[in-house]
Write a structure and sequence with these properties.
Length: 212
């Protein structure tokens, strides 16, 4: 912390260092652009509310549940919240510069707060409670969407997302791929696996459409 203050480094990495509370002085570091607090016991993000220039917040594997302190972080582009206690995305509704959002293994179910985040191009929702994809229908910049291990069954809200390059629906209830036929028409392949790191395509391992 002292070194970051002295040099005014744009990056502060507190990951895995046993932090349970964010120090109050972090709120004065308005030069910060990137903050790592992954794998900590942090629960309260309030000290970050004044960091209006923050662009990247990596808070996966923390105890964070309340996102209200990030309402003022309108320059955020990358927000990683996997394996946290987050359920309510309402505080994100005004973060219109967000490009990547990772919510893997959270309790999120309602995506309506994301409807205004038009710049979003990577959205990770695997192992959440999401079933209704209609709030994503207008997110035309979306390129990567992961829905594995969710109650999702209807892909029709994705029909107009012609920029979609990677769709992971492994272990969902999706049986009909026709709403995303445009992905196939663009030469993308259906992959009967869940190894999304293999690249673009539709990943269908473990869902009803895998037999087609």
């Amino acid at each position: 912390m002292a070194e970051t203050t002295k040099t005014q480094s744009r990056l502060l990495n507190l990951s895995g260092c046993g932090v349970a509370e964010l120090p109050a002085e972090i709120g004065k570091m308005d030069w910060l652009r990137t903050l790592f607090i992954t794998d900590t016991q942090v629960e309260d993000l309030s000290p970050l509310s004044a960091l209006s220039n923050l662009e990247e917040l990596l808070a996966s594997s923390t105890r964070v549940a309340d996102l209200s302190p990030v309402v003022s972080l309108t320059k955020l582009k990358f927000l990683f919240l996997s394996k946290t206690r987050v359920t309510d995305l309402s505080p994100l509704s005004g973060l219109t510069e967000l490009e990547q959002l990772d919510l893997w293994k959270t309790g999120v179910s309602d995506l309506r707060p994301l409807t205004r985040i038009k710049q979003l191009h990577r959205l990770i929702l695997s192992s959440t409670q999401v079933s209704d994809l209609s709030p994503l229908a207008s997110l035309s910049h979306l390129r990567i969407l992961h829905l594995a291990h969710t109650p999702t069954f209807d892909l029709s809200p994705l029909a107009e997302l012609e920029g979609l390059q990677q769709l992971d629906i492994s272990y969902t209830q999706v049986a009909d791929l026709s709403p995303v036929a445009s992905m196939l028409q663009r030469g993308l392949t259906v992959r009967d696996s869940c190894r999304y790191w293999e690249g673009p395509g539709i990943y269908i391992e473990g869902c009803p459409c895998s037999c087609r």
